[in-house]
TrEMBL record:
Residues 1-21 form the signal peptide. Residues 47-128 form the Cystatin domain. The lineage of its organism: Eukaryota, Viridiplantae, Streptophyta, Embryophyta, Tracheophyta. This is Cysteine proteinase inhibitor 5. Transmembrane segments: none annotated.
Length: 134
């Protein structure tokens, strides 16, 4: 193999090995959900009772409260899906939150950026889900 080819292979492994290793590490434990190990862009359904999901849901409600007037309190997490990305993960949550008068259904998207030096959450959206038409 020529020196140029070796450098290309090393660059490829350096860039993409962390992506696949994180997918293998999380999906190797079957309690996290069923996802194809070879396709990291398939959403994984997470258990709503996992500490990671509870932390992300609390972050979403807390961040929404900082940005808007209503002071919501998390009542229940209905569902959570995780989509693995190269530099982190995107979470889609369905949750119930109480505003002091009534409990309403909300949809939230949170991005979790991870790197060697830090880890941070970003609230991408937090929207009221309209009630079903009767």
């Amino acid at each position: 193999m020529t020196r140029t080819n070796c450098l290309i292979v090393m660059l490829f492994l350096f860039c993409f090995a962390p992506l696949y290793s994180s997918v293998f590490a999380d999906t190797a434990t079957t309690r996290r959900g069923s996802a194809s190990l070879m396709s990291p862009l398939i959403p994984v359904n997470l258990d709503v009772n996992e500490p990671e999901v509870i932390e992300i849901a609390n972050f979403a409600v807390s961040e929404h409260n900082k940005r808007s007037n209503p002071m919501l309190k998390l009542s229940q997490i209905l569902s959570c899906t995780k989509l693995y990305l190269t530099i982190g993960a995107s979470y889609s949550l369905q949750l119930l939150a109480h505003d002091g008068f009534e409990t309403l259904n909300y949809s939230a998207r949170v991005f979790h950026q991870t790197s060697i030096f830090n880890s941070s959450y970003q609230l991408r959206s937090f929207e009221l889900v309209p009630p079903p038409l009767q």
